[in-house]
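Researcher: I'd like a structural prediction for the single chain below. Treat it as a standalone chain; there are no partners to consider.
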Amino acid sequence: MRRSVLSVVVAVVAWVAVAGAAPVALPLAVVAGAAGAPTPPTPARTDVPVLLVPGWFDTARELAALRIRLLAAGWSHVETLTFRDPTGSNRDHAEEVDSLVATVLAETGATDVDIVAHSMGGLATRWYLKTREGAPVRRAVFLASPHRGTLTAHLAWGEGREEMMPESEFLAALNHGPALPAGIEALTIRTPIDTRVVPGESATLPGVEDHTVCCPTHQGLLRHDEVFYLVVDFLERTGTTVTRH
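Model: Treating it as a single chain, here is the predicted structure.
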């Protein structure tokens, strides 16, 4: 009981915290481990547009820093999405993802896109992939997305709150069958100090490459150096994705 009370207290602080809270400042050498600090990525050589999808209660503003870094790394097309109702249903959000994908493909002439989704935005992205047969998506990155729900959803609001509840009808439908359609490569990234996705294992997907990065906050993942390098490496990768357990 004492641990449950403590978890709720920590969760309350997490949900009411300012959305743009700064990540924990740890030396890159700590993040990289014995191999030392990671080397900044070389400019990307890809024409695949990237779509950035925000989480619960967030907008394109929270994704601005990541967008700027991707553009600086060589991507020519990086689009951000702001949902009409940031706390609304993932089913509705999936339709907005679909609309933006169609717009980007029409404007760029590309045949597919890559998606980087944060928090609840990952649920909308997966619903889009699940319900849009043959979705023109090559790769998807999920940053701290509560794929099996989160206990802190009790402290949120809107339709998104109900859908993020563990064992919700929405999650049961989303997780029925394969986690992702065949042919789509995916990556999950999480932090061990996430107080919004509880338990942390909810941010993983079966059979999908997973990385735990120490130690940004839930929001800080969007600006963390090691996370950025992992995203760039994955989007530029050639060959078969390696699954890590």
